[in-house]
Prior knowledge:
Distance between the termini: 23 Å
Oligomer: single chain
Number of helices: 10
Order of helices and strands: HHHHHHHHHH
Helix content: over 70%
Amino acid sequence: MPLSAENLVATLEVALAATGLVLLWRLVLGPAARARATGPRLAAWEVSVPEFLVFILFIIGGSLFFGAAASLALRQLHLRGDAVTVVSGAATQFGMLAGVLFYRSRTAPVAGSTPARGNVVIAGAATFLMCLPVMLVTAAVWEKVLLAFGLPVERQDLIAMFANADSPWLLAVMVTLAVVIAPLTEEFVFRAGLFRYLRTRIPRWLALTAPALFFACLHVNWSTLQGLTSLAPLAVLAVLFSLAYERTGQIGTAIVAHALFNLNTIVLIFSGVGL
Length: 275
C-alpha cells in the first residue's frame, strides 16, 4: 500500500529529527564535542545606549511608515479577508527590515563578528536539524501543560491561512514572507540586534531569554489566546538561534536555520501533519 503524502512527510520529519539528535550529540553535547569546544566567536557590539535607541527607533519608524503606506494601499485596492492580514504583515516585516538596513547603511554593521569560518548554509542547516528534536519535545510538553490548565491549544492564525489559501498569488506571497523576509527581518532585529546588544550588558541567561520571550509573544493573539501553543516552542527556538549565532559569530547561520524551520512548517501544514 503506497504511503500517503501525510505519512511520507511524517516519516521524513522523524528522520530529520533523528539526524538532528545525532548532530546534537556529535557537535554539541558529546564528550568529544565538549573537548574541542572553543569560546563564542560573536564579537561584542560596542555601541552606546543612545545609538542603540536610534537602532530601535529606526525599526519602529520603518514599521509605522510601511504600515501607514499599506493602509492607504488597502483602501485603494479594496482587499478583504486574509489578503488584508498578509499585506499588513508584509508591511510590518518590510518596514522593520528597511529600518535595520537604513541603520546599517549609516553605521558599523549590526551583525559584525569575527572572520567567517565555514559555510553559513551548512551551519544553518545543521542548526535547524539540531533544533528540530528539541522543538518537537518542547511542543509536546507545552501542549500538555496548556491542556492541564484548561488553556486553548489552537494554532496560529497564519497556519489556518496557509492551509485554507485559495489564491496562488496570495500563497506565493505568504511563502516568500515566511521563508525569506521574516527570517531576515527577525534575525537582524532579535538576534543581531537585541540579543547581541544585551549579551555583554546583562546576565547571559537573561540576554538569551528576554528577546526570545518577546519574539515568541509577538506570535500569539493575546485577545483570543490563539497561538498560545506556539509560545514555549518559539521561545526555545529563539534561544537556540541565539546560541548558534553566538557560537558561529555569523547571523547567516540563524537566518538559514530560521528559513528552513519556516519552510519545514509550511510543508507540514500542506501535508496535514500535526494539524
